[in-house]
Amino acid sequence: MASKPTLSLAEKLDMGLAMLQIASTTLLAAFTAPFRGSRGHRVFLKHVIHQAIRKMNIRLSPRQVQSVFPTDVETYNKWAKHRGVKSNITELRTGGKGLWIGSESAEKVLVFFHGGGYVIPAAADQFDFLEDVCSSSSSNVAAVLLGYDLVPESLYPTQLEQAAGLVTHLVKETGKKPDNITLAGNSAGGALVLSVLSHILHPHPAIESCSITGQLRAALLVSPWISFQEAPSNARNEYKDITDFSITKYWGEIYLGTAKPDEYNQPLTAPESWWKGLDGVVKDMFVTAGRDETPFDDIEQLTRVLKKTKPDLQFLFAEGETHDQPFLDFAAGGKECQTRQAAKAWLHAKLE
């Protein structure tokens, strides 16, 4: 998101009404929480907050949501100032921006694609996470977060084009070896990781190919958003999670615009044969998810498919965790959950 959208008077008035509706949903959730039973989140506060987030995401338009949040660059510059480091931003030829943590000349690079349904910009905690991973490594490692263009101004396949463009930039413009590049992403960012791998295997006809020679070092998928259809797990987890099928459908339709669903924008739709050759594209893979996510069954299904092509793929499905919990919990001041700890440990090992 290059800049915050300027809301019309009608959008502002509607947003005021929406805030009242979100507040009433939150109060109702708090009053009814003692009677939620096993269908709701086991933690009272999370049960209430998750209902409020679901209401916000389905009630507000992407433009209204984006008017509340700072842009990727604003968040990054504020984070860098707080950390006492100089901002380093790469303007990519394909659009989007590379926001660096560490030296651009580092031998190894961790590329991060942030989540948020292609609607919400990057959060400060994601920069904290990347800094933590890089600083704890004994190797010469840096990270770069892609500030990609958001919907509704930029629709599919813009985000894939910019993600693939960053990888191409690292190889062709900065001389990074593919074996020294690790991809990681959460939620929609996890889907972008898979989209880039698909693009390397099967170049997307509408964008420039990502021609690299050799394997990428590793790929981490945290709660990847891989389908815009309703997963069976939605019914059992919709009152526990921060998202549900109505939000998935709403944001997915906006992201696609007039485009049709395909293997790049919904990796779950890809047949097993699509992933043939994946082992030659990326050396190691790790998938994490929470069993209380509404899209959990989709993630589990895709993991089974990927393991047929890549038997050494690792995964962790944590009991009691919800969608994107490694980042959302910690950003709210909570402790590191099981999947966040596992993701960090795995990245540390791969970046040594």
Count of DSSP-assigned helices: 12
Low-confidence stretches: none
**Average pLDDT, all residues:** 94
As a whole number of angstroms, the C-alpha radius of gyration is 19 Å
Largest sheet: 8 strands, mixed
Strand content: 5-15%
The total strand number stands at 8
Strand order of the largest sheet: 1-2-4-3-5-6-7-8
- Distance separating the two termini: 33 Å
Helix/strand-derived category reads alpha/beta
Q: How do the SSEs run, as a string of H and E?
A: HHHHEEEHEHEHEHHEHEHH
Q: How would you sum up the global shape?
A: globular
Fraction of helical residues: 40-55%
Question: What can you tell me about this protein's structure?
Answer:
The protein has 352 residues and is of the alpha/beta class. It is 43% helix and 14% strand. It is built from twelve helices and eight strands. Helix 1 (9-32) runs antiparallel to helix 2 and helix 5 packs across helix 12 (338-351). The longest helix is centred in the N-terminal third of the chain and has 24 residues, at 9-32. The model has no long low-confidence stretch (mean pLDDT 94).
